[in-house]
Structures are given as structure tokens and as C-alpha cells.
Amino acid sequence: MASPKIAIIGAGPAGLVCARLLQHGGVPCTIFEGEKDRHARTQGGTLDLHEDSAQLALQEAGLYEEFLANSRPDGEVLKIFTPFGKVLLDENENYGVGRPDEMKNRPEIDRVLLRGILLDSLTPDSVQWGRKLVKVEPVENDKYDLHFQGSVETGFDIVIGADGTWSKTRPLLSDMRPHYSGVTGLDVTITDADNLSPDQGKRCGGGMCLTIGKNKGILAQKNGNGTIRVYAFQRCAEHWHKECGINWADTEPAKQQLMEEYYGDWDEGAKNMIIKADKEIIVRPMYMLPIGFNWIHRPGVTLIGDAAHVMTPFAGVGVNVGMQDALELAKRIIARKGEWTTEPDLKASIAAATKEFELEMWPRAKANAEKTWEYLGIFFNPIGAEEMVRYFGNIKMLEDKAKEETKAREEAEAAEKDKASEVQVNGDKVNEIQVKEIQVDEVKVDEAKPEDKPTEEQQAEIKPEIKLAEEETTVEKIKEAVHVLVDA
Question: N or C, which end of the chain is more exposed by having fewer CB within 10 Å?
């Protein structure tokens, strides 16, 4: 039996989940990652994994229990401030309307912990570190070569691009590049906040803390190790961070200047989430692919995760969509293992599997990209925090209405079922319990003792009476018929 040579480009969540699923299903693969090792950089903040996507992928991968052991359900809580210090919502204290039900059952896990679980689940030497991809080149016999900085790997049957926003795999399928979303943010960290920065730790709470103003916000999130990741996002031009006059390399004055010039009238507690942060800062313009982006299918090459549908983080769905991509693609490849009898069959099978996956993934990615764009508008609106709380309240009202409608429908269906259980017995409507009683009575009659049955002499006396009664009944029916005819 032939076996495909599979390359996965990128060791992010989508690429690692795909590799784990393939190997778990008996299909070998190799991951090529540009970073020099698993500890090369911090992996960012924390992720909330959804039960209908990322959690399903981890279940299929046999890693769900390990995920639960490292996740933080208590990290789901949200706090919302106005720029002037008023608390509008605090799920830590059950204050305010709270988030909609659709946002529940999404436990948090630190990115670094999730990556460790996935890496440790792979077969040894599955990941080749320090392999920075330059391009993917199609060669003869429908195979692909991978050109890295200083080396080439040849002869791959499938190349799965999981290499993020600026994917080097995507150009083989499309000329489309991500465009600027209209939002840029400053990314900082507060280390061991509860001990070293208790005021900031208390403000953040156990999960996420949002301070939302007009078209800008300071967003903070507690990690499992006590660190808080903080972001100062605002609507601005794409190159604002280069043209604003702030020297980002001189980090302490840069943070002060940003707060004074762009958040000057905000509450000191909000501004200190940036000012009191650690020294290192990162400026992050947010990019996205067009909503509904797709490509002309090409056998042997496909994309998953941000390479296929990068979106901003404001709906919290990006990693979930990517991990579901990995699940759907791996399932389709594994399901066709029995078709790999010859080299031509292998190629046809791979083409069918990747095309089927893409047709499933595109509308799913589009729906999530639309939701993300909607949430960007909620985070950065001309009113501020009140608009976000109002939005949550409206969704909860719709959810409550849907629950009431579901309850009414279920009650109506139950009543209809009870009505349908009625049956006709001797022309009368009776329920199932009455039918059983009648059946029991009939059984009792059939099982009457011999001494209870009438004697032959008694039967002879009864039969004429029955016959006379039948004749009288027949005469009455004839009379009625005659009257009807006369009246007619």
C-alpha cells in the first residue's frame, strides 16, 4: 500500500492538532517550524476553547482529559469598566447582566500549556525546528518541494499550510494578502500581578477586564501563572504607530506618552494597567483576510488556521476555527486510507479529501469571520462600554425568548403525544390505561372457571331470548328506514 508524504508548515495550535490527529490515526507526517525550539518566545496569553470546535478536536486526539486538568473554568469571568472607573459588569461578583449563554462552557488555558500538551503528544522528532519556509514549489508527478533558508526538502504529496497570517504556503493558491483591520494595539505584560502589582491584579479579577471608551479600549486578561496580558487598542491609520511621534524603543516614556496623549481623561486605574506594566512592549497592527476568502482547489496543497482565514481576536474564535480545521482535514485524510493501493489512487484520494475539507471549511470560516467583524464593531464603537453591555443584554433577551419558545413547543408536543395515545375501543375514546383494564377484564372472562360457565339447559334458554332480541332490533331498524323513506 502507498503512503503519502505529508508536510505541515507551522507548529501553532492548528498545525500541532492536525499532526496529532494524523499520527493518532496511523498516518505519519512532519511539522516544519521556523522558530529555533519550543522555548524560543512567549506564546502569548490565554485561550478560551469552545466545546463545539476546539474541545471536539482535543477529544478526537485523545487529549481532552489533559486539557481539562490544565484548563481554568474560573478564568471565564468578565469585568467591564467605563473609562471613568464605573463598573458596568463584574462576573467575579455576579454583578450586572452577565454574558450570553453562548459564551459559556469555554474554559481558559494558557497558550504555552496547550502547546506543550500537543508537542508532547507527537511521535519523537516529528517537529523540525529552525526551518523557516521561503516557498513551496510544485514539481513533476504532482509533488511539492519545500524551500527553506539554506535547505530544500523534496517530494511531498500533501503540503498543509498552517503558517499563520503571512503564510508562505498561501501564494501557491492565491495572490490575496491580509489587509489592515483599522485597529492597532500596544501589547504589554504585568508579571505576577497579585504579588507585585496587587492593585492591577485586583482590577483585572480572575479572568478578563475590559475598559471600553469611544473607539478605543484597554483590555486585560489574567493568565494561569498570575501574569496579566494588557492591550491598549484603538482605531487608527495603518501606519499610526510609525507616524505618531512616540519612540517605542524607549519603553517607559513611550507608555506614559501614549496614556497622556490618547487616554488622558481616563481613570488612573485604567491607565496604570499600561504604565505599571513590565518594560517590554510590542506594537500590534491587526490584520485580517477578506470575509469569505477562498481559492481555486489545487490537489496536494491546502490551508488551515490563520493561513486560511486570519481574523482579529475580538470574538475569541480564531484558534477554535483553526483547531476545527485540523480536525475536519485529518478526519477526511484518515478515512481514505483504504484507497491508497497505488500511486494514482493515492493522489486521487488526497485530492478528494482536501477538496471535501475546503468545501466544508469555507462557509464555516466565513460565518466566524462575520461574527469577528461584528465584535470588532462592539469593542470599538462611538459610545463605549455601555454599548457592549447593551449588546449582551439584547442577546440574553433573545436567548430567554428562545428558551420560552422551546419550553412551549415541548409542552405542546407532549400534549399532542398524550392525545395520540388515545385509541378507539367499541366506538369510545379511552386512554392506554383504560385499554389495559379492558384487556385485563377480557382475559378474566376467557379464564372463567368451568363451574362458572352456563349449563347446556341454561344455554338453550338463553339462545331464544338472544334471537328474539335480535329480531326486535331488526324490526325497529326496518321501521326507522320506512319512516325515512316516507319523510323523503
Answer: C
Q: Quick one: which of 404, 372, 389 has its CA closest to 99?
A: 389
Q: Give me 254's grid cell.
A: 513611550
What pairs with residue 7 in β-bridges? 30, 159
What is the band of 135 on the pLDDT scale with cuts at 50, 70, 90?
very high
Helix spans in 205-336 (H): 240-243, 251-262, 268-275, 306-309, 318-335
Alpha helices in 263-384 (DSSP H): 268-275, 306-309, 318-335, 343-379
- Give, in order, the Cα–Cα distances in Å from 446 to each of 228, 358, 434, 439, 459: 82, 69, 18, 11, 17
Residue 430 reports pLDDT greater than 60 = no
Q: Helix, strand or coil for residue 34?
A: coil
**Running DSSP on this structure, what letter comes out for residue 294?**
-
Distance between CA atoms of residues 365 and 369, nearest Å? 6
Amino acid 60 reads E
What does the block give as the cell for 27? 498516518
Transcribe 244-266 into DSSP letters: S---TTSHHHHHHHHHHHHSTTS
The answer to whether residue 447 scores a pLDDT higher than 50 is no
**Nine-digit cell at 367?**
460565518
Whether residue 318 is predicted with pLDDT greater than 50 in this model: the reply is yes
pLDDT (0 to 100) of residue 475 = 42
How many Cα atoms are found within 13 Å in the side-chain-facing hemisphere of 477? 6
- DSSP symbols for 413-452: HHHHHHHHT-EEETTEEE-HHHHHHHHHHHHHHHT--GGG
- How many CA atoms does the CB half-sphere of 456 hold within 13 Å? 0
